User: Fold this.
Amino acid sequence: MEFVLFEQKNQIGIITINRPKALNALNSTVLDELNEVLDSVDLDVVRCLILTGAGEKSFVAGADIGEMSNLTKAEGEAFGKKGNDVFRKLETFPIPVIAAINGFALGGGCEISMSCDIRICSENAVFGQPEVGLGITPGFGGTQRLARLVSPGMAKQLIYTARNIKADEAYRIGLVNAVYPQEELLAQAEKMANGIAKNAPIAVRNCKKAINDGLDVTMDEALVIEEKLFGDCFETEDQKYGMAFFLDKNKEKVKEPFKNC
Assistant:
């Protein structure tokens, strides 16, 4: 891989967009490599992913404007689809994904962060959808995910004005879950990822699927989705072990790690 790095630390995986000289901007190669990395993750071992950017200035500064500047209508649509396909894969990935946003998250950078389950950022993070200032719309899901994550009115304001916001405002409007000093960000992301990884993996996956799928349907349909995924858990060894341990009044044994079964 030229621009996307992958490191596995026990049960968590760390994906790093590695184009620091270009502020980790997304071009076609980055998108292809990210797609390959996601396909290569060993889901029998890895229980949570962290997505971050190389360096201290930028998470992902956006899509590569140099690559986009001469696209035709058809090529623009194809580039948008390439980004959307990869981001959708990230969004629906079976295990949770934490975005550790270490600096600029503009345009495609804001959009890829919104494809992750949880967003935490450094104090120097900057968010925005500046596309209308370049004569285009957000093309990697920004018009859709931002409205769902914050509110339609706030999303329209940020997109129509092309205004950037800092970490404290991103936290205030609910775009990020927490803000940390730059030097603590990755450690905090790993701490959260390890906390997720210690829980029953199939239950965690089912929770992600229930939340994601339920947001796209009516409440009645969403509850049926939850009921089925809830029921599925009772076929797992983790459910049998977890409840047996809870009911054991003596608790003489140390709780063993949950398995992928």
Observations:
- The two ends are 32 Å apart (CA to CA).
- Residues 73-91 form the longest helix (19 residues).
- Strands lie at 4-9, 12-17, 48-53, 58-60, 97-101, 104-106, 118-122, 126-128, 165-166, 178-180.
